[in-house]
Amino acid sequence: MADVLEKPRKGEDVRPKGRIGRRLLITSPKGGVGKSTTSRNTAVAAAVESGLKVAILDLDPQRGCVKWFAMRPDDKVVAVDMYDGAIEKFEDAFAEMDEDYDLVVIDTPTSVEEHKGAMKRLILSCDAVLIPTGQHWDDTKSVTDWMRYVRSCGARASFLLNRCKPRTKSFKEARVALLKAGPLCPVEVPDREDIPTLASAGLTVVDVNGMKSSDEVIGVWLHLKNEMGF
Ligand SMILES: Nc1ncnc2c1ncn2[C@@H]1O[C@H](COP(=O)(O)OP(=O)(O)O)[C@@H](O)[C@H]1O
Ligand SMILES: [Mg+2]
């Protein structure tokens, strides 16, 4: 992967000046690792924990975040806004946002190879990049090259171990394998039944009192908050 995508020119900075506070990119070349789940959880955690005005931008044609948002009981929960767009035209999606946001969380499709140019522009325009991954060898193998590419663009990036089993041997091995390629979020999100159950009602574990994984999701957000310099 690192060889396939074109490297940025030295000093190239396409970071937007102005309206939008910070941009967080959630990306992985592997499907089903929790990109959409992490986008939703992090957006809500930023709004609940830090009182930020947050939007999610869904650039995946499968529209996992848009579908979740359509079920969200917005009179009962903290507000986050939702936008969608085509990855190749993400700049237009930002230009069309009708409000100012402290944070925009960007969910992306798995197909990074099909969108090399747009992915590079996205990476260069974001303040932090989070790469969710599972803990098994095939997961970590596919994300480490991607991390190397993202970091070669000068991005501030970290891995997130998601849907994991922290007491297992493969979890401990995954931590070391990932750290060889880049930083790892110090808080992981285990495999929690509450996460998909609440998602099917347009919610996250942060929206509901007393959820076991709420501290984990907030921990991930606090790591990203530090990364982005809020
Ligand atoms: N920490 C977790 N615990 C349990 N289930 C999870 C967790 N993270 C994601 N999932 C579930 O895994 C599936 C894939 O997640 P998703 O966010 O759609 O992945 P991606 O966007 O990378 O394709 C979904 O059914 C989601 O509810
Ligand atoms: Mg998704």
UniProtKB/TrEMBL annotation:
InterPro entries from the UniProt entry: CobQ/CobB/MinD/ParA_Nub-bd_dom, DNA_Partitioning_ATPase, P-loop_NTPase
Chain ranges passing through the membrane: none
SUPFAM superfamilies named in the record: P-loop containing nucleoside triphosphate hydrolases
Ranges where the CobQ/CobB/MinD/ParA nucleotide binding domain occurs: 25-204
Superkingdom: Bacteria
CDD domains per record: ParAB_family
Coiled coil: none
PANTHER family reported for this sequence: COBQ_COBB_MIND_PARA NUCLEOTIDE BINDING DOMAIN-CONTAINING PROTEIN, P-LOOP CONTAINING NUCLEOSIDE TRIPHOSPHATE HYDROLASE
Protein name as it appears in the record: Chromosome partitioning protein
UniProt source species: Azospirillum rugosum
